[in-house]
């Protein structure tokens, strides 16, 4: 089963493919609906399907979001790694609707920091290429908001709303709005 994540822009709409198979991101749900995303999990080379998060609560996103944001601060890609990151993220429209791709930082929202941290980790610690990074970031975006982003979060003043409500999850790492 394939889905498309659609993002609306002022100049039209862009579609980014989303596939549930073969993602480097380990997001596994147990009977209790708990997401497993630990440092040990990240270092494993196996691939597991990404399961969309339930749309009723954001608690299962708190730990992985905080971990990914931490990677955005703690991992500093080399210039060569930055090129891989830019290649991967330039093909993904920013969910905020500013007309940029995720390769261009327009603000310091928690959604941007989490996608940047994911890319940093995969490139610097896993040696991922741009295709693997792009797919993992698309999977993360689908997990944070299974209904997809409208592409108008900033324009509609949704910076302080949860991901699942087409928001950015807040602007402060200390105050994740999930």
Give me a quick take on this structure.
The protein is of the alpha+beta class and 178 residues long.
Please characterize this protein's 3D structure:
This protein is of the alpha+beta class and 178 residues long. Helices cover 36% and strands 11% of the residues. The chain has five helices and four strands, in the order E-E-E-E-H-H-H-H-H. The strands form two sheets. It has a two-stranded antiparallel ribbon with strand order 1-2. The chain has a two-stranded antiparallel ribbon with strand order 3-4. A hairpin with a 2-residue loop joins strand 1 (2-9) and strand 2. Helix 3 crosses helix 4, helix 3 packs across helix 5 and helix 4 packs antiparallel against helix 5 (130-144). It is globular. The two termini are 27 Å apart.
* Helix count from the secondary structure assignment: 5
Major β-sheet, in short? 2 strands, antiparallel
* Structural class designation: alpha+beta
- Helix-strand string: EEEEHHHHH
Low-confidence stretches: 1-56
Distance separating the two termini: 27 Å
Instruction: Indicate the mean pLDDT.
Output: 74
Count the E strands.
4
The radius of gyration over CA amounts to 15 Å
Q: Tell me the number of structural domains.
A: 1
Q: Strand percentage, roughly?
A: 5-15%
Strand order of the largest sheet: 1-2
Helix content: 25-40%
Principal-axes geometry comes out as globular
């Amino acid at each position: 089963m394939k889905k498309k994540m659609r993002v609306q822009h002022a100049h039209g709409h862009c579609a980014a493919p989303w596939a549930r198979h073969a993602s480097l991101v380990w997001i596994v749900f147990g009977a209790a609906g708990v997401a497993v995303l630990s440092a040990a999990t990240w270092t494993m080379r196996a691939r597991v399907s990404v399961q969309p998060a339930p749309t009723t609560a954001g608690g299962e996103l708190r730990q992985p979001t905080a971990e990914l944001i931490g990677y955005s601060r703690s991992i500093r890609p080399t210039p060569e790694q930055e090129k891989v990151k830019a290649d991967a993220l330039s093909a993904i429209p920013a969910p905020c609707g500013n007309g940029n791709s995720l390769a261009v930082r327009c603000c310091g929202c928690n959604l941007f920091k989490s996608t940047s941290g994911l890319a940093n980790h995969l490139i610097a610690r896993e040696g991922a290429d741009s295709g693997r990074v792009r797919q993992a970031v698309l999977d993360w975006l689908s997990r944070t908001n299974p209904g997809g982003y409208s592409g108008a979060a900033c324009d509609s003043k949704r910076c302080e709303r949860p991901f699942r409500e087409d928001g950015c999850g807040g602007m402060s790492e200390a105050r994740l709005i999930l």
